[in-house]
Amino acid sequence: xxxxxxxxxxxxxxxxxxxxxxxxxxxxxxxxxxxxxxxxxxxxxxxxxxxxxxxxxxxxxxxxxxxxxxxxxxxxxxxxxxxxxxxxxxxxxxxxxxxxxxxxxxxxxxxxxxxxxxxxxxxxxxxxxxxxxxxxxxxxxxxxxxxxxxxxxxxxxxxxxxxxxxxxxxxxxxxxxxxxxxxxxxxxxxxxxxxxxxxxxxxxxxxxxxxxxxxxxxxxxxxxxxxxxxxxxxxxxxxxxxxxxxxxxxxxxxxxxxxxxxxxxxxxxxxxxxxxxxxxxxxxxxxxxxxxxxxxxx
Length: 298
Fold this sequence. Notes:
Shape: globular
Structural class: alpha+beta
Mean pLDDT: 87
Radius of gyration: 18 Å
Helix content: 10-25%
Distance between the termini: 38 Å
Number of helices: 10
């Protein structure tokens, strides 16, 4: 199996190798016997992520900001706040961006990516043959934590958005609608990097996650899962239940670490972008930013 993580970059129209934050550590804990022992005993435990989150909240962690920006070639002109305003690495990590840097596709028939990241799209979740490696597919019952609720989304479209530490870590509504509910489904905190997911896709329904349900008058219910991962201190929801929000408004943000957003639509409600589906069918993730169209209402 090729150990490289390859992502399609639509801005260059090329397949590019991802530069992974903490790659050596990830390959150690998921590929080496001693590393796997550390994973079981330490890394997936909630206290480890809380401890690491505490470190990233410490004032001394602010010294990591400038080297991180330089190493991953981030653009500070996109930031809403000046670099000097961040008192810790975590404050920088969940930074806000200027609205002009993430314009929202205005056409109401367009559905947008809810977060910056690397995305996989599936038009019909029941027809997924494999994810990352052969034989892995989504178990909606376990993802929802409810067979009854999962039935409403059987045969629907699913988009997996994977956020890396280098990404903007606020997530937004993919469509306009009422936020009907959000609930915590408790679990572990495994990494959601492909290094881990190639071995175990079930991480998505074993990890701690929030399920947010959005109601849109035209396309029905949209389920948005906010999946925590190793070193994610917590998921912060900034939108309030029972309120109406426009497409692209903020739903919340992740504290330090890699994390994922999984968006599930009811069947025959949206058509995902053809290029996006084509890249996903080849087993490659598709890089895109929040606000850009991932499909349209049928």
